[in-house]
């Protein structure tokens, strides 16, 4: 900007003419107000489940790098699973998380590995993933969710699912289940994995699943957390481990569930990002396109969206699928004010919308546009950033969120354009300035995951004129001065 002050009068007149011409092209005005600040971001992540194909993939090191490494999504969170089939000694409260006689570095083609049960392979795989992610990328936030208690502790001891209200048998097993969760957490701590938090449920309202699940009422889950889980964790010296709840499938369901639950010992409030129950009854599935802000006081506790994907149909690796995720992420981050966003699966050994990285029939990896869209947030909006005001005018199509690091002055503006028209935007900076912006584009025809532009300089008045392509997500980064 100092160069502008040294320009000759003729140059200033010319620049003014260029700026006037640009204004005539504007179809959106975005005002970034540095002084109006909202929630603090804690990060982005993915689930480490479906761990066996991850562990067995010959490309597992590359996959891990593309999810948590600096060249990839730069995720700083990972969600694990408290599996229900670990060996458990009720007398000592000890949970065995690694099958006897195995090594996390054992050859997956070896006879010893092939002799393991399906459950043992999954246990070993998850342990490998979590240890390697911590070792290689120092991922700071690891947490685990529980699909179901061990079958011996359920009302129907022969069923994995939550069908017909099958869940924890409160008359006999609340203490045992709490000790199981604490034992799992302690066993991982002994392996060098210090869980940030533990969640005793996953979609607790579920009474129709064919997969492992457990039904809970809000009253019983709150009582279990306060009377059993928190004391069990503390008894094993796990006082700093946070309790996450309640992880309902739909955001609106989580709102009603948590509002009627004893949350006195819940440290992180959580829900999932799928369609609401009314849509599900009508046969709709997939990402919630319009989650509503919770209408009860959260007590300033962090709010996390801990699972989402488009599970609604045929595999789509184009921007059609990418924009579904972009809208979902924008709604949760910029309207529901969540502090963290965690995708469902990191990888699958097939092509499926549930995963950020998929595998083609020839074994090569496929990166759908959902992978790129996730990176528009996770690569350029880091833990410790705060959302700040980004007022959009003269446009009803774009979705805009702005993020800043108060310590360094770095900032990012993520713009989603689900429309079919190129949009010219004027970015007005209020309370700060910047000498340049750099953009990173995701579109169907973009040449890289995050196609980088040449830096853009401000106009004479300090604003920026930028172009947002149709059907795209684009992030602008800069430094405040």
Automatic annotation (TrEMBL):
InterPro entries: GH (IPR017853), Glyco_hydro_30 (IPR001139), Glyco_hydro_30_TIM-barrel (IPR033453), Glyco_hydro_b (IPR013780). Keywords: Glycosidase, Hydrolase, Signal. GO terms for biological process: sphingolipid metabolic process. It comes from the Bacteria. It holds the Pfam family Glyco_hydro_30. GO terms for cellular component: membrane. GO terms for molecular function: glucosylceramidase activity. Residues 58-244 form the Glycosyl hydrolase family 30 TIM-barrel domain. Belongs to the glycosyl hydrolase 30 family. This is Glycosyl hydrolase. It comes from Chitinophaga flava.
């Amino acid at each position: 900007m100092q160069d502008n002050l040294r320009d000759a009068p003729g140059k200033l007149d010319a620049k003014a003419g260029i700026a006037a011409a640009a204004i005539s092209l504007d179809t959106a005005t975005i005002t970034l107000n540095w002084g109006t600040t909202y929630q603090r971001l804690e990060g982005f992540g993915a689930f480490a489940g479906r761990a066996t194909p991850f562990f067995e993939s010959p490309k597992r090191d590359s996959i891990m790098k593309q999810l948590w490494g600096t060249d990839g999504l730069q995720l700083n969170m990972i969600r694990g699973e408290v599996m229900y089939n670990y060996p458990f000694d009720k007398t000592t409260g000890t949970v065995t998380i690694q099958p006897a006689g195995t090594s996390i570095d054992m050859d997956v083609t070896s006879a010893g590995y092939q002799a393991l049960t399906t459950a043992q392979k999954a246990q070993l795989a998850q342990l490998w993933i979590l240890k390697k992610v911590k070792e290689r990328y120092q991922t700071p936030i690891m947490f685990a969710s529980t699909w179901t208690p061990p079958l011996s502790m359920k009302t129907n001891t022969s069923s994995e699912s939550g069908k017909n209200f099958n869940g924890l048998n409160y008359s006999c097993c609340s203490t045992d289940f709490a000790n199981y969760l604490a034992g799992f957490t302690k066993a991982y701590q002994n392996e060098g994995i210090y869980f940030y938090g533990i969640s005793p449920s996953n979609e607790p309202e579920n009474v129709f699943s064919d997969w492992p699940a457990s039904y809970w009422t809000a009253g019983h889950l709150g009582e279990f957390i306060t009377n059993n889980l928190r004391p069990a964790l503390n008894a094993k010296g796990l006082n700093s481990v946070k309790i996450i709840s309640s992880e309902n499938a739909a955001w609106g369901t989580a709102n009603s569930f948590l509002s009627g639950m004893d949350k006195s010992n819940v440290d992180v409030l959580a829900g999932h990002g799928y369609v609401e129950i009314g849509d599900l009854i009508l046969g709709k599935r997939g990402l919630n396109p319009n989650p509503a802000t919770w209408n009860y006081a959260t007590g300033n506790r962090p709010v996390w969206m801990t699972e989402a994907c488009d599970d609604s149909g045929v595999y789509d690796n184009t921007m059609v699928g990418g924009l579904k995720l972009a809208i979902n992420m924008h709604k949760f981050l910029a309207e529901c004010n969540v502090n963290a966003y965690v995708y469902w699966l990191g990888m699958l050994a097939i092509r499926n919308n549930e995963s950020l990285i998929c595998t083609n029939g020839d074994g090569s990896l496929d990166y759908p546009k959902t992978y790129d869209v996730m990176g528009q947030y996770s690569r350029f909006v880091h833990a410790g950033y705060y959302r700040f005001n980004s007022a959009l005018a003269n446009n009803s199509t774009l979705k805009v969120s702005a993020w800043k690091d108060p310590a360094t002055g770095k900032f990012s503006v993520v713009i989603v354009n689900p429309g079919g028209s190129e949009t010219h935007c004027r970015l007005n900076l209020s309370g700060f300035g910047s000498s340049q912006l750099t953009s990173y584009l995701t579109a169907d025809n973009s040449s890289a995951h995050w196609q980088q532009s040449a830096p853009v300089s401000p106009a004479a008045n300090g604003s920026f004129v930028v172009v947002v392509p149709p059907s795209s997500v684009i992030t602008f980064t800069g430094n405040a001065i």
